[in-house]
Amino acid sequence: MSIQTDPYVSRGSRSQIIERQDPVVYGNSRDNGFLTREQIRFYDENGFLFLPDFFSPNEIQKLQQEQDRLWMDNQHHNDPEIIRESQSDLIRSIFAVHRNDPFFSTLCQDSRLVSMAQEILGSDVYIHQSRINFKSGFRGKEFYWHSDFETWHAEDGMPRMRALSISIALTENNLFNGPLMVMPGSHRYFISCVGATPKNHYQESLRKQQYGIPDDDSLTFLARQCGIEMPTGSPGSLLLFDCNIMHGSSSNISPYPRSNVFVVYNSVENRVEAPFAGTEPRPEYIATRD
Ligand code: 6CS
Ligand code: FE
Q: Which residues line ligand 1 (CB under 6 A)?
């Protein structure tokens, strides 16, 4: 870490709303022509971009088969990459699919996805994290409101806001099955969260997050300022979202399962350092350091 002071201090004793110090779209040096100017402008302003029906019906069928295979194969595995629900043994997330699974590794490196990430981040990119989130019917639990960057900065040492996620819908994401909610424009505010990070926090947080979540007043402010939207759609849709957008999702009490692949692309100019919370770095399957 340099002697420069950290503009995004968090996990202390007080909540604070800080203006974003970094660009959202990093120039057009990498204009590969995958996104239109209008799409990039929308992303810049709102912090996300929804691309319905991005994959073809054949690709979608293959994606769903591979998802079922991973789910079945891992039912009884105890690898650390397999995160289970806090109230049942159901699989909640499988991390590092870009490293551990040949099919999903190819998907994460799909040149269309990589090109879009490069266009927005204005440089080469690498995969900081990947996972599939399975939100089972009836029993899949919520992901409370958070900014991914807040966690990646505090717990992984990601220096600046120069990363994005691409979420690929493997099932329909509808109004009933706990779809992602985003606050459009919230990526322009950094919310400092209260509370020192416990040791090995990830062992709890990936099941149910309790540190690195904003307080009620900050969330009320953001919702007033930005509103809330739910980009729902068919399997094969894509959602690109900025690392600092405020997002979350409710529990799924519907009978319809919901699952999405998430791939996090980070700029090669923004590689992780020592975690800013002063904690031990999280394992490689959650945050790439190699
Ligand atoms: O801790 C993390 O890195 C993960 N947790 C959440 C709730 N979202 C982003 C990220 O995958
Ligand atoms: Fe998240």
A: 129, 143, 146, 148, 151, 205, 209, 286
- pLDDT the model gives residue 29: 63
Q: Is residue 19 part of a domain?
A: no
Question: What is the CATH number for 68?
Answer: 2.60.120.620
- Digit-coded pLDDT (tens) for 183-229: 999 999 999 999 999 999 999 999 999 999 999 999 999 999 999 99
CA distances from 177 to 135, 147, 211, 233, 239 (A): 8, 21, 25, 12, 17
Domain that holds residue 203: 24-270
Task: Report which protein residue has its CA nearest ligand 1's atom 5.
Answer: 206
Tell me, in angstroms, the distance from the centre of ligand 2 to residue 208's CA: 12
If residue 248 lies in a helix (H) or strand (E), which one and from where to where?
A: strand 247-249
Is there a domain that residue 277 lies in? no
pTM (two decimals): 0.97
Q: What is the DSSP string of 135-162?
A: E-TTTBPPEEEE-HHHHHHHHH---SS-
Centre of ligand 1 to C-alpha 85, Å, is 14
Residue 13: inside a domain? no
The atom of ligand 1 lying closest to the CA of 262 is 11
